[in-house]
Amino acid sequence: MPIWRSAWPAASRRASAREARRAGPAMKSMGAAAAGARLERMRASPRWDAAGAVFRNVHPILPHLRDPQVPAPTLSDFLRGGGRRLPAGPLPADDPRDTWRRAPDSGLRATWLGHSTVLLEIDGRRVLTDPVWGKRASPSTLVGPRRFQPAPVALRAMPPVDLVVLSHDHYDHLDYPTVRALAATAVPFVTSLGVGAHLEAWGVAPSRIHELDWWETFALPGSELTVTAAPSQHFSGRGLRDRNATLWSAMVVRSARHAVFFSGDTGLTTEYAAIRERLGPFDLVMLEVGAYHPSWGHIHLGPRHALEALQLLGGGALLPVHWGTFALAMHDWDEPVETLLELGPPPGARLLLPLLGQAIEPAHDHEPRPWWRSVDGQRGMAPAMGAAAATDGAPSAVMPWPSD
């Protein structure tokens, strides 16, 4: 049973469940289950557990990842709030469109557009990771985590992209309104096994969907660009009954001259050393650093474990993602990057801390600066805010907790 269900009175849960059932097919944002040839291919994966009919993490979980002395937060804890879970005002942002009109000098440029959404310009091709333009990381337009502010560039104003990369099916990575908009274009999608069922249900042509198991590679026709799915330690699901029904992956984007690692969501795993050996070295490493908790160390990195992961991957330029957009955990909104700044990168690595929408080239020098402190004034001075301000109440009865 998801943790959050225990926080609601039984009568409320039953009423909400009846409401969800009445919604029926109208809840299209939840996606669809795999069937037919897609399901058969999933069942052939070494990560498929035939007994449970789900995917599973097969690599041993490191013993220090979860703090047994810290209880997991409940939905009640999340809604009760406290601390500085939300910024006091809008985050500063750049408009990168003028920069995008010029090719990057080095051949590789990255623009962080919020959470795990990054536009990669890599040797003449544009790749978009986990695109989320929706207002909420939720199946509902009315409740659930609400983004702090709009993306710095509207989806309709984005330049054409050559490829969309989707790591897994959680709402803060696989966004129904965004996919629906992209379905009207010709862009192909590369994603993890099973996620294609959601895409197809939302109008993406099957010929444009390319699902990968770990270590499998997709080559973009007419180019030297490839995407390889790699191990991660996480979970999946968009409702109460589909946990781990689809695979989760890290993704490596490679051209003839450059390689980029994108973690998706993951806990720390020594499989990162194998990724370095098989797919490295990397010119840019994009690691999730936010929405973590001491009891979630097996499914989320957080800043300290991100630095360990960076070392396993061989160092390089680190672009932190999965922060500054949604309140999905209990920590202060800016704690992930403050901790990274305090700890500093390991030897042989560099820390990139661009503004929202700031297009940067990893090959160039970028002095990390705490630009986010201007939002709250002096760190620690922002008013305490509960998550209710960011969620407008509890997640719907069909949404699991934790949700990412």
Break the fold down into its secondary structure elements and pairings.
Blueprint: H1 10-23, H2 36-43, E1 48-49, E2 54-55, H3 75-80, H4 97-100, E3 108-112, E4 118-122, E5 125-129, E6 163-165, H5 176-183, E7 189-192, H6 196-201, E8 209-212, E9 217-219, E10 226-230, E11 250-254, E12 259-262, H7 271-279, E13 284-288, H8 302-312, E14 316-321, H9 335-343, E15 349-351, E16 359-360, H10 373-376, H11 388-391
Parallel strand pairs: 5-6, 6-7, 7-8, 12-13, 13-14, 14-15
Antiparallel strand pairs: 1-2, 3-4, 3-16, 4-5, 9-10, 10-11, 11-12
Helix pairs in contact: 8-9
What does this structure look like?
It is a single chain. By secondary structure, the protein is α/β, with parallel strands linked by helices. The chain has one domain: Ribonuclease Z/Hydroxyacylglutathione hydrolase-like (Metallo-beta-lactamase, Chain A). Helix content is 21%, strand content 16%. It has helices spanning 10-23, 36-43, 75-80, 97-100, 176-183, 196-201, 271-279, 302-312, 335-343, 373-376, 388-391; strands at 48-49, 54-55, 108-112, 118-122, 125-129, 163-165, 189-192, 209-212, 217-219, 226-230, 250-254, 259-262, 284-288, 316-321, 349-351, 359-360. The strands form three sheets. Strands 8-7-6-5-4-3-16 form a seven-stranded mixed sheet. Strands 9-10-11-12-13-14-15 form a seven-stranded mixed sheet, with helices on one face. Helix 8 (302-312) crosses helix 9. The radius of gyration is 20 Å and the shape is globular.
